[in-house]
Amino acid sequence: MGADAVRIDAGALTVFLAEVFHAAGCSQAEGQRVAENLVGANLSGHDSHGVIRTPRYLGWLKSGNLVADRDVSVVSDTGALMILDGQFGFGQTVGPQAVARGIERAKELGVAVVALRHAGHLGRIGAFAETAAAENQVSVHFVNVAGSVLVAPFGGAERRMSTAPVAIGVPGAGGAPVILDFATSLVAEGKVLVASKGGKPLPEGSLIGPDGRLSADPAMLYGPSDPAVQPNSRNGAGALVAMGGHKGSGLALMCELLAGALTGSGATGPGYDKIYNGMLSIYMSRDRFGAEDDYARELRRYVDYVKSAKPVAGGGEVLVPGEPEARMRGVRRKDGIPLAPDAWDAIAGAGRDLGVTPPAPLS
Ligand code: NAD
Fold first, then answer.
1. pTM score > 0.85 for this model?
2. Which residue, 41, 60, 32, is CA-closest to 339?
3. N or C end: fewer C-beta atoms under 10 angstroms in the chain?
4. d(CA 292, CA 42)
5. For ligand 1, which residues put their CB under 6 angstroms from it?
6. 38-47 pLDDT, tens per residue?
7. Residue 266, class by beta-carbon neighbours within 10 Å (0-12 exposed, 13-18 middle, 19+ buried)?
8. Is the predicted pLDDT of residue 92 greater than 90, yes or no?
9. Which domains are delineated in the chain?
């Protein structure tokens, strides 16, 4: 974040956004859930999936891409496998509902698979793995974004895949859980959004032009920047690059097939009139795998062993997945959430338009 970032207190931001989403048509409870989830992503350091999404969510609510106060409906329930339909409701409502059912079923049977189709944007998928880990559940989540074609497949210079995130979480057995959570594109689309609004610049080579040349320019995705217009990823001529060469590209393809084709949600492509998530989640009860003490000992031993590797840079440190987010939560709860001025102006303006007064920045 640039030096000119404004800082907003997390609590005040949550109260503000809950009112904004309520004023836009969500119940108070849903407004609160959306606000907590977006602010939670910023607190965890994932600004791409935080409050910067507010104007886009409000636009989607207006256009019918998202529907207020929808619950999941059960398409089929055959015990260890549940197929749920999010009915284009807010991901912050239908996502936690699907996760709660998966956790409950895995506690009963030892394992549960939940296919969630047609969910509004689910935000930071790692939040679901954290919820499951807190309930002593191992979980694996494959996600795709139908209607969002952003990523070039390995060897290609044209978009064919979504940013299709994967999250895996294991319970911490009395310590911190290990939570791996990332987009299969080299950077998440929201990070391009943040960069386009003056936030953290993108790593070189995270985008590719139609001529096959690598780039770091957000215009590849959004077209030329215009502060008066919401960035629209359909306007750019380029694509995001998949992470990890052919391996990341292959993982993204499997996310499209598991979360899109298998769940019945739809693998991405042209011709969708909505942008939404599909998610295939697997939950496994940790306690069915053996004694808690043995697992805790081996988890601790291995995490400590990994972290004891000599750091590449002097003063550096080896971290395990989930640690950066946990640390960032400590810092930002105390210091507030930094936002690029452009991004904050758009969020505050969206609130004022709905008659809700934004909080004053901390400094
Ligand atoms: P990222 O590149 O920041 O990677 C995050 C992962 O890497 C985390 O597990 C983190 O703990 C780990 N990590 C980061 N630094 C580390 C270090 N130094 N050592 C060890 N581990 C480290 O994440 P991203 O790809 O930008 O994704 C951001 C978010 O976007 C994710 O929460 C993802 O779920 C979300 N997302 C959501 C959608 C959607 O449609 N809902 C689509 C794409 C991405």
1. yes
2. 41
3. C
4. 33
5. 46, 48-49, 121-126, 143, 145, 163, 165, 167, 179-183, 187-188, 191, 277, 319, 321-322, 324-325
6. 999 999 999 9
7. buried
8. yes
9. 6-65+321-353 (1.10.1530.10), 73-185+242-289 (3.30.1370.60)
